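Hi R.,

Here's the input for the tetrahydrodeoxyuridine complex you asked about:
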Amino acid sequence: MKEYKKAFLWKVYGFDELDANDRSLIEAAKDATNGSHSPYSNFKVGAAVLLEDGNVVTGSNQENAAYPSGLCAERTALFAACHNHPERRITALAIAARNSQGWTALPITPCGACRQVMAEIESFFETPIRTLLYGKQETIVIENGASTLLPFCFGAKSLE
Ligand code: THU
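And here is the predicted structure with tetrahydrodeoxyuridine in place:
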């Protein structure tokens, strides 16, 4: 029998401790919440994807009266980036969310399906997606986004 253990590293920052690039990606995610279509949850999520050339692609959650037809902010942004710039590596992703009370105090984390999509992109480009999770109280930074958030996941290699 062999036993394995995987460590999970994340960093917690106050917003003011972040560098200007990180703050600006988070601001883009916050702005993106303005595009949210969320009449059912009233929970507005914004995501900003940073490409290797410095361009930013944003997305927001898009809900639907047929609930499962909606899509999270992260996948809206990631798919838009992959569609519009298929040749450019994705290097970072910022996420922010607000409800009727304002920005969440604690960061929200991507759902399982979004993590799976992040894992696909990370493995395709062989580039970690630095993930910035904004909360009013603290921002979490996960340097190796999907491999940290979704260890042991199904991927292209599993199909071989
Ligand atoms: N949502 C996101 O867009 N991203 C997340 O990381 C978590 C949840 C959306 C889905 C739904 O529109 C609303 O937030 C409430 O779950």
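One thing worth noting: Strands lie at 11-13, 44-51, 56-60, 90-99, 102-103, 130-133, 139-142.

Cheers,
M.
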